[in-house]
Amino acid sequence: MIKVVLYGPESTGKTTLAKQLAEHYNTLWVPEFMREYLQKKWDSKKELVAREDLIPIAKGQLKLENEASQQVENLLICDTNLLELKVYSEYYYNGFCPSEIKNEATNLSAVGGNNYSIYLLTYIDTPWEVDDLRDRPNNREEMFRIFEAELKEQGFPYKILKGNQKERFKKAVEIIDVLLKKN
């Protein structure tokens, strides 16, 4: 099975693209568990993410992905993964990330681990959209560099998606079509 992960800084169009790709390929997409989890926390307590949230978020993300993997044969679109959680954890907590998340995010042979065919790294040339959870509109370039550096450090395959929604979708389809032909 081909697993494609949309990966990159906040407010770069990952969710929109995940939905479009899933519809185009008539497959499932895995939503970002962290967003739902943290929105509920914000709505009930007006609190943002804390260190103790990281493991529950990771478990929730893996559960969603594993459930979706059981329901598709050829292609799964993931609107984030644990590598993104690792990057954010290290950024917000001065290099700290729970070892369970690090291991799962970077271990190619881990059950449910990093066995993605391609990372589609979303560039920061999309308009910033304000919401309850997004908090770094002025750090987008720095975040993009951090996200890309992580992919390079891990040696994971990736392509950068730039441009408007239509251009990104077209490029993503071209990339995925090549992967499907190889499979």
Structure description:
- Residues 3-168 form the NadR/Ttd14 AAA domain.
- This is ATP-binding protein.
- The structure is a single chain.
- The protein has 183 residues and is an alpha/beta fold.
- Helices cover 51% and strands 11% of the residues.
- It has helices at 14-25, 33-45, 54-69, 82-92, 99-106, 140-154, 165-182, and strands at residues 2-7, 29-30, 75-78, 118-122, 158-161.
- It has a five-stranded parallel beta sheet with strand order 2-3-1-4-5, with helices on both faces.
- The longest helix has 18 residues, at 165-182.
- The N and C termini lie close together (8 Å).
- Residues 109-113 have low confidence and may be disordered.
Features:
single chain, Rossmann fold, alpha/beta, 5 strands, 11% strand, 5-stranded parallel beta sheet, 183 residues
How is the secondary structure organized here?
Blueprint (H helix, E strand, L loop, with lengths): L1 E6 L6 H12 L3 E2 L2 H13 L8 H16 L5 E4 L3 H11 L6 H8 L11 E5 L17 H15 L3 E4 L3 H18 L1
Helix pairs in contact: 1-7, 4-5
